[in-house]
Every structure is written in structure tokens, then in C-alpha cells.
């Protein structure tokens, strides 16, 4: 029987893969927040220099970053819908430049985004538009989208 030789390069590769797998397992474990300050202090013998007890408070007033509704639209809606103001020309769903009723304001458009199968535009079928935008987008993002569509879809140039 011949003896198998393992090169140092292969050993290094396997060790690196094992370390990466361990790091990945640590990232996906139930302890996703990482070690506590006490764990770090005990392991290093150093006392923490500051204590972090909570995430920073939400910014207030004009500190809130403006929501880029056009970007949200092009990323989430533009491949299916045409909206000239967003520079999109999707044709899977209704053309929003021409299909909304004049009475479809921000509230109605918000409902169309969150509950897309509640009312279906003639010529289209239920189940085409994703039904999870109410979960994947924040309330502020949905409101910004509805306002963008409302401002630009009613015969906008």
C-alpha cells in the first residue's frame, strides 16, 4: 500500500476552510449579538472603556434622512410598471402614468401597494404583484412611494 502525502498547502487550505465555517456558524447562531462586554473583559483582562446599553435613539425632525422614493420605485416597482417620473417602462403591470383613476389618492395608492389583489386593474390578473411590500418596506417608504405615484401619475408630463 502506498503512503498518501498531504502537502502543507492543502493543510493550510483545510484549516482556513474550517476557520471560515466556524466564523459563519458563530454569525448564524442564536447569539447573533456576539460576546458580552463581560465576556470580552474576562478574556482580555481589560475593563470596558464604555458601556453600550441600547441602540442609538432615532433621529428627530430634520435629522431624518429623506426617503428616495424614486430609487425605491425603480428598485421595487419599475421592472413591472411604467412611471415616466421614475424613468421606468415596465409592462408586466399597469402603466401608472395612464391607469390610475383621478380619485386614486395617496390612501388608495397605499392600499394598492400593500394589498395589491384587493382591486385588480381590468386586463390584469391577481397574484402577479408581490403581496409582501407591507412587510419588506417601511411605512415611511410606502407613504413616499404612494406620494410619488400620486404626484406624477395623474396625467403628469
Automatic annotation (TrEMBL):
Q: Which residues form the Cytochrome c domain?
A: 64-153
Q: What would you give as a GO molecular function for this chain, any one?
A: metal ion binding
For this protein, the record's InterPro entries field holds: Cyt_c-like_dom, Cyt_c-like_dom_sf
State where composition is biased (Polar residues).
30-54
Give the signal sequence positions: none
Under Pfam families, the record lists:
Cytochrom_C
Region (Disordered) residue spans: 30-61
**Record keywords, A-Z:** Heme, Iron, Metal-binding
Identification of the protein by name: Unannotated protein
Amino acid at each position: 500500500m502506498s503512503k498518501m502525502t498531504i502537502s502543507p498547502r492543502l493543510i493550510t487550505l483545510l484549516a482556513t476552510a474550517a476557520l471560515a465555517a466556524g466564523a459563519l456558524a458563530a454569525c448564524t447562531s442564536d447569539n447573533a449579538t456576539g460576546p458580552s462586554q463581560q465576556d470580552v473583559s474576562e478574556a482580555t483582562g481589560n475593563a470596558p472603556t464604555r458601556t453600550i446599553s441600547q441602540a442609538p435613539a432615532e433621529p428627530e425632525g430634520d435629522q431624518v434622512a429623506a426617503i428616495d422614493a424614486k430609487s425605491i420605485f425603480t428598485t421595487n416597482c419599475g421592472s413591472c410598471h411604467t412611471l415616466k417620473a421614475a424613468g421606468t417602462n415596465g409592462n408586466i403591470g399597469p402603466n401608472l402614468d395612464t391607469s390610475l383613476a383621478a380619485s386614486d389618492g395617496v390612501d388608495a395608492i397605499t392600499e394598492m401597494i400593500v394589498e395589491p389583489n384587493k382591486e385588480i386593474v381590468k386586463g390584469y390578473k391577481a397574484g402577479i404583484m408581490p403581496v409582501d411590500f407591507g412587510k419588506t418596506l417601511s411605512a415611511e417608504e410606502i407613504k413616499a412611494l404612494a406620494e410619488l405615484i400620486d404626484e406624477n401619475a395623474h396625467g403628469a408630463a
